[in-house]
Amino acid sequence: MVKEVVKLTPRIFKLTKIKKIRVAAYARVSTEKDEQHNSLEAQKAYFTKYIKERNDWQFAGLYYDDGISGLRHKNRDGFNRLIEDALQGKVDLIVTKSISRFARNTVDSLSTIRKLKGRGIGVFFQKENIHTLDTKSEFVLTLMSSLAQEESRSISENCTWGQRKRFADGKVTVPFERFLGYDRGEDGNLIVNKEQAVTVKKIYRMFLQGYSAFGIAKALTADSIPTPGGKKKWSAGTVHAILSNEKYKGDALLQKSFTVDFLTKEKKKNEGEIPQYYVTGNHEAIIPPSTFDRVQKLLALRKGGKNRISSVSIYSSKIKCGDCGSWYGSKTWHSTDKYRTRIWQYNHKFEEHCTTPHLKEEEIQTLFIKGVNMLVKDKQEIIATHKEMVKTVFDTSSLENEQLKLEEELNIVADKVNNCINENARKLQDQDEYEKKYTSLVNRFNTVESRLKEVKAIIVDKQDVMRLNILSRI
């Protein structure tokens, strides 16, 4: 007898509750303009309605970034929160408008999608109709992400070209919302903000009076004067930036920095890699050019190193260590009690070996008075020696005579060049001879002009050094 097995189909079916998929949406706009902000609001409203209309979907939230580029994940707080929540098991599916809204960086886009896919979390791109959990989506996704990145590169290059074209045309723009002393005029140019200009002038005046950038910052903070960014506390760096910005004398240096990589947005100081443009007399100056230039010389003189000057004490940057040649600095012992004592010692006393002992300020004062008395005793001889030194070092009379001769020769050579050109136009000449004569005259003109510029620069430098020498001793 053959055994027979018959399958019996159940007549009672158990109804299992369908588990809803937790769906979150992501929206982003890359600028903070009003029309873009309205676009973001529209995206948020659309996705909220889109998800809630599906019976098999459960709304898991809406994440967004406003005014943030899609090139990097680093600064996209909304995006990063979404990915973190998804990886923690709070989201099953992410819905977004397009690949470019999700990310314009191919590497970041694919690595994030693969990480989510490894946890069983999908991403649905509406515009491209791509679902990342679909096995066929990988190739298409790679291609579309690459196209999005290239589109971003193209946009970045177009923006860079436009910016550099504006620079080449001498068009000046500044971040007016955090630029002290100027407002945006009707034509987009800089106009003086008289109230803020008072602060700018005060900064320059205090610096010329001997205050350091730190001292100026401290005084401005104490006077409750707001910083360019509207903050209460000033920093030495902000003061230094104002003191060294050529826009305060009415000029503008364009293309001070440039973007190295469109993906990372890394900026680099322009040290000759790309052209810069200097616009003279672009707008009304707050600081006279001569004053601004004098401040730049003083900034260079005060800048670090062994030759810096200071307004902290009359002895600052005046006392050198006899052992190692470095500057002495002041230090206060027992600053809060009756035994308060001010001493002077090598600034890096405890960092490097130095055998020279410290000195009390009273000892320095005694030595200073003794030295002054010695000078006063032989003051006539010292004054005569000093005058002779000034006459020798800073005398520009011979240079001024050379300048006059060069200017006279330059005019003569210029006349000869013009005569040579006119004569060639009036009558027939051997063109080889003409070219030889013309080239010789032009070369002579360039040589004289170059030497004239050099002489003028030496005269100005000598005069500036003399003024700074006097100023640094006051």
UniProtKB/TrEMBL annotation:
> Which PROSITE patterns has this protein been placed in?
RECOMBINASE_DNA_BIND, RECOMBINASES_3
Molecular function terms in GO for this entry?
DNA binding; DNA strand exchange activity
Checking Gene3D superfamilies in the record gives: Putative Large Serine Recombinase, Chain B, Domain 2 (3.90.1750.20), Resolvase, N-terminal catalytic domain (3.40.50.1390)
Q: Which domain of life is it from?
A: Bacteria
Q: Which organism is it from?
A: Amygdalobacter nucleatus
* Resolvase/invertase-type recombinase catalytic domain: residues covered: 22-170
The Recombinase domain extends over 179-305
Q: Matching InterPro entries, A to Z?
A: DNA_bind_recomb_sf (IPR038109), DNA_bind_recombinase_dom (IPR011109), Resolv_N (IPR006119), Resolvase-like_N_sf (IPR036162), SSR_resolvase (IPR050639), Zn_ribbon_recom_dom (IPR025827)
**Designated name of the protein:** Resolvase protein
